[in-house]
Input
Amino acid sequence: MSWTLMLHGGAGQMTPATLTPAQVEGATEALGRALDAGAAVLAGDGSALDAVEAAVRVLEDDPHFNSGRGAALTHDGIAELDAAIMDGRDRNAGSVAGVTATRHPVSLARAVMAHSPHVLLSGAGADTFAREQGCEAATQDWLVLPERRAQLEEMLAGGGAFDVDMKYGTVGAVACDSHGHVAAATSTGGVTGKRWGRIGDSPLIGAGTYADDRAGAVSCTGSGEFFIRVGVAHEICARARIGGMPVTEAARAVLDEVRAMGGTGGVIVAAPDGTAAWHFTTPGLYRARLSSEGGREIGVFGESPGAA
Ligand code: ASP
Output
């Protein structure tokens, strides 16, 4: 039985000129570990849902990415985390926004899905629910890294405009398991310098994250405000399900629409037919792919689109 797994670690202005070899190596190594964690689930006949959660947890702990530890900071210097997870079998979903005291927002999103009557919890209430559910706590001291503080200070010194061109991004995973079921998960700190309880596309079901066995699973990264307005993840699935478009084509068409409105970013897509693809309109996208047939691939720069 075949399976596919695809990850992203954010879209942005990554080029060989803007990243050091050590940054590329560190991020590549972490993507490899996340791929292994998800692949172990899928190879053991586990579900796509378990696989995407396992992979995202690895990236949340890794400081190279804007999620969990190492998240981008708000205007006030706080790590406020957003995450979502969705199961393509029944379109069950859970998400959290503005979490400040939980180590793995993706697992908290899963707990919201599995153990609450709600889909989206936010702020202090979400952290309270995390403790009730036994999700591991994290302090701001642990979540906030000096590089992120420096990035915020640089941004504030430059006048405080939103930094949507982050070098390190949001993380996400999509998978199709050996039973043909898909799932998606996304986790992020959002954008540097965000204010007023800003929430991006990542935790919004249909915008940054979506999964439906009738179409595919999608996780997004990029300028969230545009992704929300286009409803990118659901729009890609709708074009596949209703319009009969291959998901790869749908991904390209929808990102073109986002670009026409002024937004850029990337998506990863997994479909029940075994398609695993990415598409991005930024100079780079941290990405990784593996399937039961092999084809292990990890990339950072250029070469969009990619499909298998
Ligand atoms: N889409 C994320 C947000 O707007 C940021 C990113 O993907 O880099 O919160």
